[in-house]
Amino acid sequence: MVSDELDALQARFPACETLAYADLTTGMILVTNSNTPLERNALNRLCAEASAVLGAATAPSLGNSAAESAVVSGQDGVRLFVRAPFLPNDVLLCVGTAGLDLAAFAPEAQACLQRISEDG
Amino acid sequence: MIDEGTIARKLATLGSEKPVFRDGARVISNGILPSPINAILDEIDNTILRRKLTFRVGASFMSFIVAGRRLLSLVAASDDLAEANPPVGAALSHEETEAFEAVGAALTLLVREDHPVLVESTPSDEGGTRSDIGISVDRLADLLEVVPSAPIKPMQIFVEACEGFYTACLFWSDGLWVGHAEDDNVLAELRKVADDQWERFRGAYGKSGQSLDAPRLFMLERALGEAGSVAGTWAQGEFALFVYDPSNLADIHAIWRKIFTT
After folding, report:
1. pLDDT > 90: what percent of chain A?
2. What are the sequence ranges of the domains in chain B?
């Protein structure tokens, strides 16, 4: 199940507090990890943020290619948005604290999304 | 006469973002911005009523009684600052040259590493009276050769610190994009991003319910395909755009967080 995949990834990286599988076409969060601290409004805003940052697969927000992933960093922590390689509107939204080890986490998030996306 | 440095300090205080606390103490510098010594001077300068201010950098600390924007006495200092011979327990005065300079040397030692500076401010009846001469913040700034009104340019610091991690860079300065790159073709690609996409990107980001005022860093993996990834950042009305190799993501991200977050 998708939620099991998200929970397992979150258990390996506790500094990532929220993992959400979303569809950018509809702007909807489909599944989250079971202990996310974010409520519905915050999740909707997260999805809108990912949509603004990544842009549409055919109309990238920045650059001339659909970005494979995007990192957004600020005082409030770090967010990683990962696109599924073959279904570019399927994305994994990850919200972490400043302590999240991006170099270690990003490949695992990509692998997790690929498994979810292929199963779906 | 109103001193420009004083005005700059007040404006900086009024315009600062909401305070960040760590272990019960307020973070006044992330180790780079504002510069640790400036942050300490600002804190003293903003203390009118009698308080005990304890400045902490890692395990090192100095505790002063402060009132009327002056250091009245040094009540405690960590052992690692002993080599500066700080006058712990003594009433302070800029006329006591040896003690005055020892306080300056100890403060310099306190901020020798670019680590975050924290302050605890508590009421206190400990040593020093308001009638003591004390050491004014201006005297201390002169001793430490600090220019309180020196403009801080965090984006420029960031761009310079990232040199070696990007292949092309554009920096928004005085209404123009200024850029450099080893490969003119890559720079041309980045200019297209700056001219055609950057403002639209910022607009879309703002409409998504996010702040356009708080400093932000965006790193888009392979946004220029084989030419590389694109990073964009804003802070205090300044912008920078990079093209970088994906392997340098963690380095650029770490530098940005060091400069722009506490």
Report:
1. 82
2. 4-143, 154-260
DSSP conformational letter for B248: G
Amino acid at B159: V
Contact yes or no for B209 and A49 at CB 8 A? yes
Instruction: Tell me which of B20, B193, B221 to substitute to probe the interface with A (most A C-beta atoms closer than 10 Å).
Output: B221
Is A62 within 8 Å of B209 when comparing Cβ atoms?
no
The pLDDT of residue B126 is: 74
pLDDT number for residue B4: 47
C-alpha–C-alpha distance, residues A80 and A67, integer Å: 12
**Interface with B, mutate which of A69, A71, A82 (most B CBs under 10 A):** A71
Per-residue model confidence as pLDDT tens digits over B72-114? 999 999 999 999 999 998 889 988 999 999 999 999 999 998 8
Q: By CA distance, what is A48's nearest residue in B?
A: B208
Question: B250–A62: do the CB atoms touch at under 8 Å?
Answer: no
Write out residues in chain B with pLDDT < 70, as ranges.
1-18, 127-131, 148-152
Q: Supply the DSSP symbol for B183.
A: -
B204 contacts chain A (CB < 8 A): yes
Query: Alpha carbon of B250 to those of B50, B164, B256: distances in Å?
Result: 45, 13, 10
ipTM of the complex: 0.95
Q: Could you give the C-alpha distances from B165 to A62, A102, A107, B6, in angstroms and in order? A: 19, 17, 21, 38
Taking all residues of chain B, what is their mean pLDDT, rounded to a whole number?
Answer: 87
Give me the sign of the Cα torsion angle B257, B258, B261, B262. Answer: positive
Report the gap between the CA of A46 and the closest CA in chain B (Å): 8
Q: Say whether B217 and A60 touch across the interface (CB within 8 A).
A: no
Cα Rg of chain A, angstroms: 13
CATH topology of domain A2-119: Beta-Lactamase (3.30.450)
Residue identified by tokens 């599924």 is A84
Which residue type, as a one-letter code, is found at position B38? N
Q: CATH topology for B154-260? A: Beta-Lactamase (3.30.450)
Return the closest-CA partner of residue B50 out of B73, B28, B29: B73
Write out chain A residues lying below 8 Å of B221, CB-based. Answer: 67-70
